DNA sequence: TACTGTGTCAAGTAGTCACTTGATTGAGGA
DNA sequence: TCCTCAATCAAGTGACTACTTGACACAGTA
């Protein structure tokens, strides 16, 4: 017989083993998939295929779809954190937030999906941390208000929410942008224009005085 | 024989036939389901159960899940239309928009889902009609701008988008609202407060001069 | 009374999903 | 050289999904 030696078939698959690399491949693919379709719409098969790894590794490393979602939420948190805590003029901070549509659209979309999938307090894993970060912004608004730079009737917390929602609009309401502005909401030139406009509005409200 | 009359077994199922009523039952249930979970997350089984009718009727009346989605999108259009075309002061119009979070949260959520599920022009069935309606708002802004009531550097179309995004925030970013404002984003009292604040901001920008 | 078409239903069907099982590979230590 | 264990894979599995099939009930009409 020609099969004298069992000849452990040299199966060409199975990449060079590297847990860190594999984790990162999965995380990157998951971020794109969840950002594109939300939690319910995302497919673990698509994530594995995009990452070029076996589906099972999603369970091995992240304990399933939900664990994976939590993991990318944490990763985005860190980035958002850097963004908001930088010591910049407030109008500049808001412009940067609007420009995330260019630099990190996945993160912005994740935040928007989170809003629609949100189901009462306790449902949002990172709500506490987010409130910490953004309350900082609201605090700065309040200080400016007491200094007389901002109208006294304004509620700093509400204004924070409004500015944030407005800054995200090129990502969260692209269909409206396309209809009203008549441009491709992902066009970098338009996004920069829009970011300028958001900063301008913030300035008009009194956020950029010395 | 005792069975002289075939006595057409009175199967207790099968409601009184009423196509109009059935259509409406399905539409109402579908609106709630799509608003709650988006298109991908909505389940036709859940819609049928909620409407108390057989799943098959969704195909009979609306030609499937997608046709049903189109049908409710049209229904919401009409309402949004009424809302924007009313001849009211612009700040009041914006307040009303923000108050839709109370009166028609499903419609607002549908709009938000539409943004995230949007995939380039041509994908949004109602984009044309929406742009017609909202461009009217932008036009009024432009007129006000030419009258000198609004800063010249502002782009009316962008401002329209910003105000709309801000007005929707209690529905589209409830997790952020909860974190920053520390309140239940669905609390009617808070929503009214928030609507006042959005109108106030619009006023500060110059939208409410005579 | 018989016929016809519309509205309704129960019971499929094929496909997809998240997740599981069990085996295989390689690296490092005994 | 053999053993162990972490990393990887292929091939399921049962649950669920949108959609289909085929039959039946009722109302109107002839």
Automatic annotation (TrEMBL), chains A, B:
What is the name of this protein? TetR family transcriptional regulator
Q: Which organism is it from?
A: [Actinomadura] parvosata subsp. kistnae
Q: Which residues form the HTH tetR-type domain?
A: 20-80
- Give me the positions annotated for DNA binding: 43-62
Which molecular function GO terms apply here?
DNA binding
Residue segments, region Disordered: 1-21
Q: Does the keyword Membrane apply?
A: no
- Keywords for the protein's UniProt record, in alphabetical order: DNA-binding
- Spans of biased composition, class Basic residues? 1-10
Q: Which SUPFAM superfamilies match?
A: Homeodomain-like, Tetracyclin repressor-like, C-terminal domain
Tell me yes or no: is Transit peptide among this UniProt entry's keywords.
no
Q: Which Pfam families match?
A: TetR_C_21 (PF17926), TetR_N (PF00440)
Biological processes annotated in GO = regulation of DNA-templated transcription
Question: InterPro entries, per this entry?
Answer: Homeodomain-like_sf, HTH-type_TetR-like_transc_reg, HTH_TetR, Sco4008_C, Tet_transcr_reg_TetR-rel_C_sf
Basic and acidic residues biased stretches: 11-21
């Amino acid at each position: 017989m020609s099969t004298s030696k069992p000849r452990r078939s040299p199966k060409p698959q199975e990449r060079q083993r590297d847990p860190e690399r594999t984790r990162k491949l999965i995380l990157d693919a998951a971020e794109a998939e969840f950002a594109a379709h939300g939690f319910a719409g995302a497919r673990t098969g698509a994530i594995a295929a995009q990452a070029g790894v076996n589906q099972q590794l999603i369970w091995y490393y992240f304990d399933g779809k939900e664990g994976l979602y939590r993991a990318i939420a944490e990763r985005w948190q860190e980035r958002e954190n850097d963004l908001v805590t930088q010591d910049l003029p407030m109008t500049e901070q808001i412009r940067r937030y609007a420009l995330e549509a260019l630099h990190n659209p996945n993160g912005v979309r994740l935040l928007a999906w989170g809003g629609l999938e949100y189901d009462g307090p306790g449902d949002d894993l990172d709500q506490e941390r987010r409130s910490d970060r953004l309350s900082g912004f609201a605090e700065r608004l309040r200080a400016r208000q007491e200094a007389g730079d901002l109208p006294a009737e304004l509620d700093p917390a509400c204004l924070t929410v409004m500015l944030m929602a407005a800054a995200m609009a090129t990502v969260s309401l692209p269909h409206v942008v396309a209809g009203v502005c008549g441009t491709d909401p992902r066009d970098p030139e338009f996004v920069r224009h829009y970011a300028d406009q958001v900063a301008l509005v913030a300035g008009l409200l009194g956020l950029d005085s010395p």
